[in-house]
Design goal:
The chain contains four helices and no strands. By secondary structure, it is mainly alpha-helical. The mean pLDDT is about 85.
């Protein structure tokens, strides 16, 4: 049986030098802030400030506002939240699969011992 447990997303962060660790920690920190629904709400509020001007400008300004301001700014955070949820679900599935495999390995070891005992009893 293993003492390491299943590999998780956090296990993929670089650890080989201080600069790599700092860069990974900074990136994860920024990602946690930008990848939150609160940040998505803030971005939506910021985007809506310019909406009246985009509407007044007609289609020529409204379409770019939707594509470049609203969708890119707001959906970025929402997608990041979704990816975080999916990563946590993946880690949970990995943990469950690991635990199931550990349990099965233990059961197989017990069965091997039983088979060996039966074989030993047949020859004795």
């Amino acid at each position: 049986m293993s003492d390491n447990g299943p590999i998780k997303v956090v296990d993929q962060h670089p650890r080989h030098n201080a600069a790599a660790r700092f860069n990974a920690a900074l990136a994860v920190g920024i990602t946690k802030i930008v990848g939150s629904m609160w940040c998505a709400y803030a971005f939506a509020l910021i985007a809506f400030v310019s909406l009246p001007n985009a509407i007044r400008g007609g289609t020529v300004t409204l379409i770019p506002w939707i594509a470049q301001t609203f969708l890119q700014l707001v959906l970025l955070s929402i997608i990041m939240v979704g990816q975080d949820v999916q990563a946590r679900a993946s880690d949970a599935r990995s943990e469950q699969t690991f635990n199931d495999a550990e349990r099965i390995c233990g059961e197989v070891a017990e069965l091997k011992e039983m088979v060996a005992a039966l074989k030993g009893g047949d020859h004795g």
